[in-house]
Amino acid sequence: SWSIFEDRILYQLLVFLQPPSRHSFRLELYSGTHLPERCSNIRVVQECTCWRSTGNVLCFVHPSNTNGAAQHSALLQNLCTGSYLDVEEVSCWVQNLVQTAWGHLPQWQQWQLTVLPSSRSCRLLLSGPSGLQLCAVLVFAVEQGSP
To answer: What is the tally of structural domains in the chain?
Structure first.
């Protein structure tokens, strides 16, 4: 959606997160008096790939190295707290990714990018040469029942 707020154009974008290969997201509901849209954790599950003909792809679930230790995925190591997707980590990662990518977009070099503080979304302010300001808010979500 978009709207005009004070002297800015505000864009709100819903970004659906997809699990990387060999992973799935599982929504786990809290019990209690929380509102429905705020009452779930997103559990990251590593899928077994032993039965697939995947060539040299390692299975995260079952140990395949000589010491018998299970493999840990980069997703779990970098964007999760325990086995759960950490929205603050995802937001920080996306903010850093956007800042890094911005320098590689010469067609936008006259626009200034400012990443606004936010721990549960990615808020970006673009300031143009004519004083025009665009604010984009990326809100992260997963689809219930997605693989």
So the answer is: 1
Output the CA torsion 109→111→112→117 (10° steps). -120
For CA atoms 58, 60, 64, 69, the dihedral sign is positive
Q: Domain containing 77: what range? A: 2-142
Rounded to whole angstroms, the Cα distance separating 127 from 17 reads 27
Q: Which two tokens stand for residue 67?
A: 């010491």
Cα 130 to the chain's mean position, in Å? 32
pLDDT one-digit tens code per residue, 83-99: 888 889 999 999 999 99
Question: Whole-model pTM?
Answer: 0.73
Among positive and negative, which fits the CA dihedral 85, 87, 88, 94? positive
- Three-state DSSP state, 110: coil
For residue 25, being part of any structural domain is answered with yes
